[in-house]
Amino acid sequence: MATRRDFVKTLAAGTAAAYVGGRSWSDLLAQTGAPKRREVFIGRKRVKVIDSHHHLNIADVARVVKGTPFERQAVTTGDGIIGPERIAWMDRDGIDVAMLTQQGAFWYAVQDRGLATEIVKAQNEGTAAVVGKYPDRFLGMASMPLQFPDLAAQALEDGIKRLGFKGGGISAGWAGAKNLSDPEYDVFWSKAQELGAFLFMHPGGTNGNGDPHFAGKGALGNTIGNPLETTIFFSRLIYEGTLDKFPGLKICGAHGGGYLPSYLGRTDAQCRRQDDVCTAKKRPVEDYFHTQLMADIMVFREEGLRHLVAELGVGQLVYGTDIPFGWPVTPDFILNAKSLNDAQKEAILGGNLIKLLKLSPATTA
Prior knowledge:
Elements: H1 4-16, E1 19-20, E2 23-24, H2 25-32, E3 41-42, E4 45-46, E5 50-54, H3 61-65, H4 84-93, E6 97-100, H5 113-133, E7 138-140, H6 149-161, E8 167-170, H7 186-195, E9 198-201, H8 220-223, H9 225-239, H10 242-245, E10 250-253, H11 254-257, H12 264-273, H13 285-291, E11 293-296, H14 302-312, E12 317-318, H15 332-335, H16 342-357
Parallel strand pairs: 5-6, 6-7, 8-9, 9-10, 10-11, 11-12
Antiparallel strand pairs: 1-2, 3-4
């Protein structure tokens, strides 16, 4: 059965092997120099492009876990470490600002409260240092030890109040028998609501791993398992009343919000045919997606994008890339979408986050 260690090894390998035309970004920069920064226009208007789904590794975490069972899981090299290579990638694709949403991390498996706190402190301090070095290009998001809800609430508050982060990154499938809708997590959700934190949920890569049905070709643990994890996460928050208990929460789900936005009809029909399973929620399922739940646009085909807009509304969608994992989702995916008008394109590419996070609409290109 695959473990979190297996997942983190896969994550690290993928980060270190992010290639462009067969060359790493380091090689590309050494051979060709930095690319000219692309400016994205809609008509004649220069628009700010904000990437909501952007990973990073912090090398200093290795210092904290040295000599512990987690020593081999720290990542110190590769394209996950942010520097000139990442800026070059963003410049080439026309990404003005990236939100550093680190999730699915190995520290969720740490059972020592002190060690978990120190790992997350190093992760968050390192993230703040990246933002400090490139203040016009990155937004910080707090990493948290979600296995300890009280410590997670403290880390989120510290990240926002002391480090200037905009919110936090969370995962869900790591919890095993636990769910983030369990009452013990009320202390975390309450703090997130109090802080007005924007939360980005990214799968931890646990759904599908170790299940023989996900074996074979197609990387099904990722292709199917990751969106499934988000689907389950959102469903639990809805059906167990978490979102009604904390109506101020704003949570964005990676990879198009999983499968739930594409299957709201069955979800709603289940409540009509068997209403006893829906007694904890207070509103129609779609209402949560019109108010509290959001999604990035990593669905890759225009028909999928059109459907997300139809089900969630443009105001609930944000641009995301999954850099440094090399998925084909540059701003052109939005710019070329025939189903969107110019105002909708601008909203998705950055306008929605500018409004939600109270950011400056100005660019520095």
